[in-house]
């Protein structure tokens, strides 16, 4: 039986039952000589699990060996693709290694979602990777990781199972670590200041030693006159634009990972803008101090990590170029929230499950469990369990409900 790692902790049932689970297929628990849950489409060759003797770049003990004698597709009966998979997953990842063959250079990788192990028609094809992203002249014995982004899908993915086809007439190769990577929810972005709501001529607050050290005035954007930016003039060091920030309820700056903004350096007589340091203060403590070579007379996007910065819901942030001869503009100051998969960290339990040798194996004991099929019928139940016997279950998707202490969890399992 395929070892299907579900790199997903069990989720709080009431909130996270709909989260899409990652799927990663390896061949570690499959017997050498078995098909490893795969099928050679059209019988144009063969598939079998072998010991992996090419461990550089892939330390797995086993891999799937493919002998392609006629445009063979490999059908993965244990990797279902639901209708609309392009909205659930971000990419497919798979490792390939060319062993040999008479037709092995510049392969095209075609990707299908087919309801059976012999269909590879245009209705089922939803993507391809030219040259398979792998080889020009094939690198024999070298593991390569190939990725296909679902963002490149131009039509809806039909329901079926994954088929990967290297379009070559005679190639011997290995496959390992086939993954479906879930989509990550776009990280929310907050615009701290873009100055469009200001009136031209508004004088904004600065961090400075004396009132005459620097000024910040809202003016027309130097390249787009219909838009606005803040124009900063500095005659002393450590001057910066001061922003009073109130974050959304329940958020602190520690919930955000990136600060970004645009900067435009005026290159005129009397300025010294280039090769200066960008400085950012949070509540009057310097948190970012990075040298910037600068691009004269052009907008340049800057982005800096907010790693390790903590503060309350309200804070003061100062942003500026550390120069005593400064003449520059700032615009589009934003912070980006830390990326989320839609799973609350507080809801994640370190329990994960894989299927091997007619058993669902849990990495820790649960107090109680109930196993259901996709029709909602309960198949089995138990207490104080760290494994579930699946000998009498057919291949397919199952739902596990479990409890540890007072917490209840649910996830999908694949046999």
Question: How would you summarize what this structure contains?
Answer:
With 415 residues, this protein is mainly beta.
Structure, described:
The chain has 415 residues and is an all-beta fold. Helix content is 2%, strand content 53%. It has two helices and 30 strands. The longest helix has 4 residues, at 13-16. The radius of gyration is 28 Å and the shape is elongated. Residues 1-19 and 340-350 have low confidence and may be disordered.
Short key terms for the protein model shown above:
53% strand; single chain; disordered N terminus; mainly beta; elongated; 415 residues
SSE inventory with pairings:
Layout: E1 3-6, E2 11-12, H1 13-16, E3 23-26, E4 38-41, E5 45-51, E6 62-68, E7 73-81, H2 85-88, E8 89-103, E9 109-114, E10 125-129, E11 143-149, E12 160-166, E13 170-182, E14 189-193, E15 203-204, E16 206-207, E17 214-220, E18 228-234, E19 240-246, E20 256-265, E21 276-282, E22 285-292, E23 299-305, E24 314-322, E25 326-337, E26 353-356, E27 359-373, E28 378-389, E29 397-404, E30 407-414
Antiparallel strand pairs: 1-3, 1-26, 2-30, 3-13, 4-7, 5-6, 6-13, 7-12, 8-11, 8-13, 9-10, 9-12, 14-25, 15-17, 16-19, 17-18, 18-25, 19-24, 20-23, 20-25, 21-22, 21-24, 26-27, 27-28, 27-29, 29-30
The largest sheet, given as strand count, sense and whether it forms a barrel, is: 13 strands, antiparallel
Distance between the termini: 8 Å
Rg, Cα atoms, Å? 28 Å
Number of strands: 30
Q: Which stretches are low in confidence, meaning pLDDT under 50 for 5 or more residues running?
A: 1-19, 340-350
Structural class label: mainly beta
The protein's oligomeric status is single chain
Estimated helix fraction = under 10%
Number of helical segments with 4 or more residues = 2
Relative strand content: over 45%
Mean pLDDT, to the nearest integer, reads 85
Shape annotation: elongated
């Amino acid at each position: 039986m395929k070892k299907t790692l579900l790199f997903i902790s069990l989720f709080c049932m009431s909130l996270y039952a709909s989260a899409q689970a990652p799927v990663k297929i390896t061949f570690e628990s499959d017997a050498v000589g078995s098909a490893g849950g795969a099928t050679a489409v059209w019988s144009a060759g063969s598939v079998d699990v072998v010991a992996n003797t090419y461990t550089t770049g892939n330390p797995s003990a086993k891999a799937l060996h493919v002998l392609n004698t006629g445009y063979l597709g490999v059908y993965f009966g244990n990797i279902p693709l639901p209708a609309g998979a392009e909205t659930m997953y971000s990419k497919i990842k798979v490792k390939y290694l060319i062993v040999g063959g008479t037709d092995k250079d510049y392969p095209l990788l075609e990707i299908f979602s087919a309801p059976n192990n012999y269909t590879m028609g245009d209705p089922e094809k939803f993507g391809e990777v030219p040259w398979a992203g792998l080889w020009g002249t094939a690198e024999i014995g070298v593991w390569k990781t190939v990725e296909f982004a679902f963002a490149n899908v131009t039509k809806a993915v039909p329901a079926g199972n994954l088929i990967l086809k290297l379009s070559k007439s005679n190639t011997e190769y290995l496959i390992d670590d086939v993954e479906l990577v879930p989509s990550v929810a776009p990280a929310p972005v907050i615009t701290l200041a873009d100055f469009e709501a200001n009136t031209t001529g508004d004088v904004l607050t600065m961090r400075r030693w004396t009132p005459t050290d620097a000024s910040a005035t809202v003016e027309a954007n130097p390249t787009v006159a219909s838009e606005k930016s803040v124009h900063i003039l500095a005659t002393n060091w450590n001057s910066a634009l001061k922003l009073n920030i109130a974050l959304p309820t329940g958020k602190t700056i520690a919930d955000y990972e990136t600060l970004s903004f645009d900067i435009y350096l005026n290159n005129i007589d009397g300025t010294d803008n280039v090769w200066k340091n960008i400085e950012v203060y949070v509540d009057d403590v310097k948190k970012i101090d990075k040298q910037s070579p600068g691009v004269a007379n052009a907008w340049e996007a800057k982005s800096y990590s907010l790693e390790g910065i903590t503060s309350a819901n309200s804070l003061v942030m100062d942003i500026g170029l550390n120069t005593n001869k400064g003449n520059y503009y700032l615009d589009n100051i934003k912070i980006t929230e830390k990326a989320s998969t839609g799973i609350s960290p507080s809801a994640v339990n370190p329990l994960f499950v894989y299927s091997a040798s007619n058993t669902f194996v849990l990495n820790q004991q649960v107090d109680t469990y109930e196993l259901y099929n996709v029709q909602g019928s309960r198949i089995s139940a138990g207490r104080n369990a760290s494994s579930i016997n699946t000998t009498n279950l057919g291949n397919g998707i199952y739902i596990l409900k479990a409890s540890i202490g007072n917490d209840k969890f649910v996830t999908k399992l694949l046999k």
